[in-house]
Design goal:
heterodimer; A: seven-stranded mixed β-sheet; about 20% helix; B: about 250 residues; alpha/beta; 9 helices; about 40% helix
Chain lengths: ~230, ~250
């Protein structure tokens, strides 16, 4: 089993998972280092037979972040699980462009991208699942959920499926909404102050992504970062 | 005895529609008041207005609670002051566990009283103790607030929360609706254990059967946003037998 990982200063990352390889990859963009200002990263990832990849993105800081992912499932029984959370406010812009191609039969992919947008922040999600004609018995799911935390925040979402095989299970969904006022009132009626009630709801919204991180220590650390960022979110 | 709550000429609307049309009500510490009335008479609106729900606008009148202007307080401030609403339809909050929800609530109440937050051990002990009041299984604490709970479990969770917060004025909005006899008994036993000389209950119900378990000092009948009858506990039996029509005719 071998994983090849190549990064270079132009913000390109190539990863090829050979047959049977498995990898978990956590991307933290917290507004320091290369993600401090404008940052564009292109990921080109391929999975051979039986390989499995889990990738979790935490986009918490930076002025303009663009993540372009292309994951290509090239060997049977390859499995890919992508998840990400964006927290944007101020004038931040965060884009995800995801292309997931099922090139052979019997592969599985899931995508769960969630955004919380405040201030004048903008998030854009463009996701495409492409299933080639021979890729029968594909299972592919994609979801993008957006929570608007201010009246001036914007979330764009464009989930797409292109399916050329006929024996597949595929779905995609997207939502854009606000915090549920009934939930807020319920919490406030128990004495939880409004700001804290909002934070609890936003953490709950984020948790579905955070819980994908396998290492409990790392998950706890990332949850603390998300909570800290949410407390600042305007 | 001290007056805990005094409602005077309370009017409240949703949009253009006036729902409460001049409510007068006085509750003393140690009392249990039942509010009955046909559907749409304003019972749930009254409880929501008292808890501070902003979907209703108070257009006239006043509510004094423990000497303070209740209507000037935010929902959380009312809770800190000891007001509790048991919801007719408790809200599900996916992703927020019961234990984290209650910890946030209890520790905020303590902070408001200048107390240190409870230690993890002390909090869990308190939680176990209060869950026993309503025969709630400890497996509930890790689950999302009300998520996947049956109707009866949700109502028991309301009473559990009430036991945790120990309010001075508890308003129970149709806590009995959708409960079978066993759940009704459990809920009522929970309430009766929490009765003290210095707190009061408003029990909103459609049915006399809850009042077999939680015996009220006074019964009010609400109709079209006004209280049309106030009497002792025997009124519930009369309503059970004869319905509301005779009361409505009497009032018109």
């Amino acid at each position: 089993m071998e994983v090849q990982l190549i990064t270079n200063p132009e913000g390109r990352l190539q990863m090829a998972l050979e047959a049977g390889a498995s990898a978990e990859y956590l991307v933290l963009q917290d507004g320091t280092g290369t993600s401090a200002r404008e940052c564009e990263v292109a990921y080109a990832i391929s999975l051979a037979e039986g390989a499995s990849l889990k990738m979790v993105f935490l986009s918490l800081g930076g002025t303009v972040l663009r993540n372009r992912l292309h994951v290509s499932l090239q060997g049977r029984h390859a499995a890919c699980d992508l998840a990400g959370i964006c927290l944007a406010d101020g004038r931040q812009e965060m884009d995800y462009d995801v292309l997931l191609t099922h090139e052979v039969p019997q592969c599985a992919s899931t995508q769960l991208f969630k955004n919380i947008v405040g201030g004048h922040g903008v998030t854009r999600f463009h996701g495409l699942i492409k299933v080639v004609p021979d890729a029968q018995q594909t299972e592919a799911y994609q979801a993008n959920h957006n929570l608007l935390a201010s009246d001036t925040a914007k979330a764009y979402t464009q989930p797409q499926l292109e399916i050329y095989a006929d024996d597949v299970k595929c779905s995609h969904g997207a939502t854009i909404g606000r915090l549920n006022p009934d939930e807020l009132f319920y919490m406030r009626s128990r004495g939880i102050p409004q700001a804290e009630a909002r934070l609890l709801q936003q953490l709950a919204f984020s948790y579905e992504v955070l819980e994908k991180i396998s290492s409990p220590e790392l998950r706890e650390k990332m949850q603390a970062l998300v909570e800290q960022r949410l407390r600042e979110l305007a | 005895m001290n007056t805990l709550l005094k409602i005077e000429n309370l009017h409240a609307s949703v949009g253009e529609k006036e729902i409460l049309r001049g409510i007068n009500l006085e509750i003393k510490a140690g009392e249990v008041h039942a509010i009955m009335g046909p559907n749409g008479s304003g019972k749930s609106t009254l409880s929501a207005v008292l808890a501070g729900r902003d979907t209703f606008t108070v257009t006239e009148g006043s509510v004094t609670y423990d000497g303070r202007d209740l209507l000037a307080l935010s929902p959380e401030e009312r809770s800190w002051a000891g007001v509790f609403l048991g919801f007719q339809y408790p809200v599900e909050i996916p992703g927020v566990s019961n234990v984290n929800f209650m910890k946030a609530a209890v520790n905020e109440q303590r902070r408001q009283r200048g107390l240190e937050p409870l230690s993890a051990g002390a909090f869990l002990k308190l939680m176990r103790e209060k869950m026993a009041y309503v025969e709630m299984d400890s497996s509930f604490s890790g689950r999302g607030v009300n998520v996947g709970f049956s109707g009866g479990e949700k109502k028991r969770n309301e009473i559990f929360q009430m036991a945790m917060l120990e309010p001075r004025l508890a308003i129970l909005d149709e806590t009995d609706s959708g409960l079978d006899v066993d759940a009704l008994r459990i809920v009522a036993t929970g309430v009766n254990q929490l009765k003290r000389p210095d707190n009061a209950f408003i029990v909103i119900t459609h049915y006399q059967r809850l009042l077999d378990y939680i015996v009220p000092d006074v019964i009010h009948v609400l109709y079209k946003g006004r209280i049309i009858k106030t009497a002792g506990k025997e009124l519930a039996l009369e309503i059970e037998r004869k319905g509301y029509d005779w009361l409505i005719q009497e009032s018109e």
